Amino acid sequence: MSPTPLVHALLILVFVGFSDALKVPFRIHDVLPVLPRGISWPVLNNLHSAVDLLPSFVASVTPNNASIQWQGACFSHNQARLDFTADANNASGLGGAILYLKTEAAQSWTCMDLYIFATPYRITWDYYFSAREHTLKFDSWEEPAELEYVKQHGVSVFLMPSGMLGTLLSVIDVLPLFSSTEWGQNANLDFLKRHMGATFEKRSQPWCATIDPADVHSGDFLAVSKIRGRWGGFETLEKWVTGSFAGHTAVCLKDEMGNLWVAESGHENEKGEEIIVIIPWNEWWISVLKEGSNPQIALLPLHPAQRAKFNSTAAWEYARSMAGKPYGYHNMIFSWIDTVADNYPPPLDAHLVISVMSMWTRMQPAYAANMLNEALNKRLGTEGLDLHDILVETEKRGIAFDQLLTIPEQDDWEYSDGKSTTCVAFILSMYKAAGIFGPISSSIQVTEFTIRDAYMLRIFEDNQTRLPKWCNNENDQLPFCQILGEYRMELPGYNTLDPYANMNENCPSLPPTYNRPLKC
Ligand SMILES: *[C@@H]1O[C@H](CO)[C@@H](O)[C@H](O)[C@H]1NC(C)=O
Ligand SMILES: *[C@@H]1O[C@H](CO)[C@@H](O)[C@H](O)[C@H]1NC(C)=O
Ligand SMILES: *[C@@H]1O[C@H](CO)[C@@H](O)[C@H](O)[C@H]1NC(C)=O
Ligand SMILES: *[C@@H]1O[C@H](CO)[C@@H](O)[C@H](O)[C@H]1NC(C)=O
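Above: inputs. Below: predicted complex with 2-acetamido-2-deoxy-beta-D-glucopyranose.
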């Protein structure tokens, strides 16, 4: 059964567009109308339930020539193997790999299989119309840890259910965000400009400040915005969902000797796990300068009145009690789920988030792997169900998938990793311990705060002339001290909101303006 020449030509047109999608931004909208009706995916409107939307994990393809086989949605016989290669452009000196994927026995000639290939360091995708051997190239591994990971665990292959056109469209928009190239960075900037109204104006030189630790104090806030690679892509989505113009945070601490430290939740250790650390300033600074995510960083000094109030002893006690504990994946997932359920920004929908989350939890270290499922189990009052079973159970009970997501988080739910915090919940908890919130401390729920909510607090320096000289702020006149990055950081609403009791417990966040009702 071979397609007619016309159809063939059209398929090739689509194909070329798609296979280059990671290099040339390509819009399927442009091509879809030229396809005859019979060719557009027959399953287009065929989504029955949320289960249909889950990517299924097919296998991990490991390099020691073990070829794996499975049955796809379109092609009945599929095989894949992975060969390591010398580094094609020798960017990392680590080499790369080629994945060979053979598709056979199509159910019909209009069907296709859409695959996602992932390591914890990258996500890429491709789809196949024709029965033959396809290749997928990994030019070079990002870091030795990725090479090691692939040696041991292989590249994970996920099969997307047929008929995911909506998801496919979203994926086209989103996947480039994770590419650690100039092009990937531009995808992030474009996305934030388009969906959040960010501007990314170039800043005057020097782009990297020479910091004098003597001018930095306990409690000073570090707002980080990554715009490239996997963390860049992840942060872009997080920013968009939450309305924050920064994607990560850390906080400064001084010890009795006057040495400067950074306390951070979500610092990657040698094993690739995200944990809470307290590390010397220099070590932190060197590690961010080395990052491939092109971080933009602002120092937000506490207001002198707050600094005077700041109980450093209590802050250190809190930080030490948390050091070594895992990053708060579940906090993060809940705040995502809540936001997603309330007002998920188009073109993504809750289902795609679940797809990405389900892939992501599979790729992350064991302690993070079950967080999403745990959260959803709590909402159903069940235990130990995996995502698939959760969705089946939801349907059995006649609850819509979106309704499941809107069931609010209860403070007394306890998760398997016990105490853990996101980057910003960690800092605000420290502020709480240090007395920044004064008498209303007990009615501040730090897990309700996004990064935006944190930098909007009126607790920071409000007099530009008191910013340290090395901020080099003469030209840019920022209200804070940017210490790294080529683009002027924007933090709309910075330093404008006095803290109040039960703050942020009822705030919507709707792009692109993210209007915030008073006293929500
Ligand atoms: C690799 O392939 C060779 C030849 O095809 C075979 O003899 C060997 O058992 C394979 N090794 C593994 C680990 O599958
Ligand atoms: C890649 O670069 C490394 C170090 O720069 C060099 O030692 C190695 O020979 C290069 N490999 C290839 C395949 O060119
Ligand atoms: C600061 O915190 C420590 C430890 O919690 C406490 O013992 C001390 O009394 C506090 N100091 C002030 C001035 O409140
Ligand atoms: C800002 O700080 C400078 C130097 O401390 C001081 O002279 C000036 O009056 C302050 N401005 C305001 C508006 O407080």
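The chain has four domains: 5-47, 51-166, 182-328+449-484, 339-404.
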